[in-house]
Amino acid sequence: MTDKQDRYEEIAGLLLAAGGGRRLGGRPKALLEHRGRPLVEHAVGVLRAAGCGRIHVVLGAQADEVRTRAELSGCVLVDNPDWAEGMGSSLRAGLGSLAATDVRAALVSLVDQPGIGPAAVARVLGAYEDEKSLVSAAYDGVRGHPVLFGAAHWPGIAATATGDRGARAYLKDHAAAIRLVECADVAAPYDIDTEADLGHLE
Fold first, then answer.
1. pLDDT bucket at 21, cuts 50 / 70 / 90
2. Cβ(160)–Cβ(154) below 8 Å
3. pLDDT at 105 over 90
4. Are strands 37-38 and 134-139 parallel, antiparallel or unpaired?
5. N-terminal to C-terminal alpha carbon distance within the chain
6. Does position 178 have pLDDT exceeding 50, yes or no?
7. N or C: which end of the chain has fewer CB within 10 A?
């Protein structure tokens, strides 16, 4: 095993896939079809292709149907009963599921960003150093996803992750510590939020 592979063993992919798709008529984003399969399955495939050996997936809206329809074998599935509160609750649930493991960092990705593929994820993974790492993809200099949180930051992130803000407040307060990794040349960070956005799916 190479040094790079050794370091990747310390990182878990954390996929936030609990949203109910309120602006999509209540269709959970995890179950939207992309390339013939549920979007959550595609997102897990991206993390695996980038080098994430361990993946935790946070489920919420219609979690039972997601488990039935999506091929998520090998993943740790984390139920977030408070998913309707917003992304913050899913981030807390996901980090909580990792706290009892020996993982030293979490690479967080969102299920509704299919324009972000393995190349961008691999760049962010490659910037990991240790449990104090804070790394974010950037698009023309603007911070986006995925983001990597070293374990030293998890308590602070969990304490401030509320509503749909996720880790935004924590990252704002620690902006000087964030290593930005430019990814605009290999990824497009659009979200699937509205009916109009469904045109991005294939």
1. confident
2. no
3. yes
4. unpaired
5. 36
6. yes
7. N
Q: Which two tokens stand for residue 163?
A: 């509503």
Residues in the chain: 202
Question: In this predicted structure, what is the pLDDT of residue 49?
Answer: 97
Q: What is the percent of the chain with per-residue pLDDT over 70, rounded to a whole number?
A: 97
C-alpha 192/C-alpha 195 separation (Å) is 8
Q: Which pLDDT score is estimated for 1? A: 43
Structure tokens at 67: 């488990």
CA distance 7 to 104: 9
- What is the spatial distance between Cα 183 and Cα 189, in angstroms, rounded to a whole number? 9
Q: Is a pLDDT exceeding 70 seen at residue 184?
A: yes
Question: Residue 144: what are its φ and ψ, rounded to 5°?
Answer: -150, -150
Q: Which long-range contacts (CB under 8 A, 24 or more apart) does 86-89 make?
A: 86/162, 86/163, 86/164, 86/165, 87/16, 87/19, 87/161, 87/163, 87/164, 87/165, 87/166, 88/161, 88/162, 88/163, 88/164, 88/165, 88/166, 89/18, 89/161
Going by pLDDT thresholds of 50, 70 and 90, the confidence category of residue 183 is very high
Give the Cα separation of 107 and 54 in Å (integer): 10
Query: What's the rounded mean pLDDT across residues 175-192?
Result: 96
Cα dist from 42 to 30, 48, 115, whole Å: 9, 10, 11
Helix (H) or strand (E) holding 47: helix 39-50
